[in-house]
Amino acid sequence: MAVTAVIQHHVADYKVWRKAYDGFGDVQKAGGVTRQSVYRAADDPNKVLIMHGFATPAEAEKFLAGAELRDAMQQAGVQGQPRVEIYQDA
Fold first, then answer.
1. Strands 44-54, 35-41: parallel, antiparallel or unpaired by DSSP?
2. I need a surface site. Which of 8, 19, 28, 64 has the fewest CB within 10 A?
3. What pLDDT was estimated at residue 71?
4. What is the rounded distance in angstroms from the CA atom of residue 27 to the CA atom of residue 20?
């Protein structure tokens, strides 16, 4: 059963964040990310929505709880606590 993690957060500067996000692809792949998409809010270009696919909820939870991701998000300028939700295909 496929799983989708939905992450929403605000960043200080989208261009800086996007460069860091794009440079994190190998870590995502190693962490079990099977698909990804990124969206920006129409009314705030620094509000970002990310959707990552995983094979299992356990893979998603492990990746999202990892110190490497947390450090990368901090360095990329993520502000505040991200909103994270995990969904399974129905």
1. antiparallel
2. 19
3. 94
4. 12
**Whole-angstrom Cα Rg for the chain:** 12
Identity of residue 12: A
Q: What gap in Å lies between CA 77 and CA 80, rounded to an integer?
A: 10
* Of the listed ranges 2-6, 45-49, 66-70, the one predicted with least confidence: 66-70
> For 30-60, b where at least 16 C-beta lie within 10 A, e where not — what string?
ebbbeeeeeeeeeeeebbbebebbbeeeebb
Q: How many CB atoms lie within 10 A of CB 4?
A: 17
Confidence (pTM)? 0.91
Domains of the chain: 3-81 (3.30.70.100)
CB neighbours of residue 27 within 10 Å:
14
What's 84's DSSP letter?
A: E
Q: In the structure encoding, which two tokens stand for residue 12, read together? A: 């200080």
